[in-house]
Amino acid sequence: MLFNQFHDILPGSSITEVYTDALPTWQEVEEVGSKILQNSLNAIASHITLPEPPQPDSLPIFVFNSLNWQRSEVIVIDLPDSFPNAYVYNLAGVALPCQLREPSELIFLAGDIPSLGYRIFWLCSAKSKNDHSSAHPDDSKTGLRKQEHFYPKRLTLENEFLRVIVDEENGDLSSIFDKVNHREVLSQAGGNQLQAFQDSGQYWDAWNIDPNYAEHPLPPTQLKSIHESLGRFLGRAIWGCVIASSVIAAVDCRNHIYNHLAN
User: Fold this and answer.
1) Is 148 left (phi over 0), alpha (psi -120 to 50) or beta?
2) Which of 135, 138, 146, 155 would bridge with 95, disulfide CB 3.0–4.6 Å?
3) What is the pTM of this model?
């Protein structure tokens, strides 16, 4: 991995042959590192004494926090085939709001995961007989809504900490207002803006950027659809999305870029 940290490799300014050589090494590093991480977490989990499950077929969910501060996060898990319906309980036996998502995923909010620690939850295939709470899993048809026609009020993401406004034309962030400190975070509209320019170079396929590239911007992104689900709001542009958890003072911008150019 360190060998491929050369300054021309990281920004993408090397020639094609460099990446043909570097990509298999990166893939190997990711594969080996992921395997070591999973084996380490499995080893830790195997030494944890579990309390009595709420149901005989309940499965434990271990949520680890590698950071040195307590945090709450929306968790996505793959459901086993034996769980057509699923409910999540904490160790106190309280059902947590959760949501089924296609094709076979479940999302729920894991609250107050201790720093450098873990918290255990139970995945159950049916509702506990002692559970009288109103929490229940929404299915993907009612709980996860895809919006093709946009209204300004639906483009506002808000919780007790932040109010985020998404531009209905391109999916950029028009505003991030800090409700705790009563101030606007963005100096100007256009947060999480993705810019692309035509750049064919002048002489070589690397190390050379057209000095007039800024005069040839590619068309801006367009907002295609919005997906709203439990604890998070997803405003998706062509390449990007914005997620805001209902109880977390942060906006998570994850950009997925797809290369549709022919090989």
Assistant:
1) alpha
2) 135
3) 0.69
